[in-house]
Amino acid sequence: MASGTASNRRHRGAADTATDAAEDAADSRGFELAARAGYVAAGVLHFLIGLIALGLARGGAGSADQSGAIGQLASSTGGTALLWFCFIGCLALALFQFSEIFFGAKALRDRKKLTFRLKSGGQAVVYAVIGATFGRYALGGSSDSSSTTSSLSASLMSNRAGAALLLAIGVGIIVVGGYFIYSGATRRFRRKLSGLPPDRIGTAVTALGIVGYIAKGFALGVLGVLVVVATVTNNPEQSTGLDGALKSLRDQPFGTWLLGAVALGLMAYGVFMVARSKYQRM
Q1: Which of 43, 64, 108, 217 is most buried, taking the most CB atoms under 10 A from its CB?
Q2: Buried b / exposed e along 76-88 (16+ C-beta atoms within 10 A)
Q3: What global pTM score does this model have?
Q4: Spans of all domains in the chain
Q5: What pLDDT sits at residue 176?
Q6: pLDDT at 230
Q7: Is 65 in contact with 145 (CB distance < 8 Å)?
Q8: Which residues in the chain come in under a pLDDT of 70?
Q9: What are phi and psi of 154, to 5 degrees?
């Protein structure tokens, strides 16, 4: 009995040591800098999506989504090096958000722990997916976000459970979009920032955040509505991701102006994310 107790203590001691080592790694300066690079990568991605959307508003062509933006980056001068930078940054940020599930919620009250962990887990998945796309292009591959989204929607719509899940996803996207608009309008995003100077730089960063959050929220809202409509009408071709959502704006009354405004907002959000890499509270 005594030997069993001693063995359990050794196992607990080893587990505690491993946990402390993992927490120290997550708190290291090098890991923090790599994770901050993930915000730069996300900023570049949103800026390019906004730039493509602005071209669409002016009558141009292109795919205003993740694959279109990364493909444009891949074809630019020095694109491969930038892709690897963005891949490493997004991967590090995904790992950081994952570590927050275990270490970041320690100081929170029980009621807030679950929400914090779910949010951190969701962000970890998002940045991991973005990083994987950067990595695929860095290795010479490619992808089509619109086609993939449409095919996945068709698969889910083929049965009731899948359709219900897709409907829930659409509603969830609308809710997230609403939260982005709320965060932008109330400046709630500033809670995540630390050391923001009270001068013109701070004012500019705040203004970019307000415009960017509202624009991204609006774009996500349109995307969510399209997913819901596509599910209700059983038409997967309407569910073509962010590119389809932005192009649907162009087809509405005053759509060119509306799409142009959203495009500029997404570009502002991209610049804000780059600034966020410096001021984000980690």
Answers
A1: 64
A2: eeebeebbebbbb
A3: 0.84
A4: 18-279
A5: 94
A6: 85
A7: yes
A8: 1-27, 104-111
A9: -60, -40
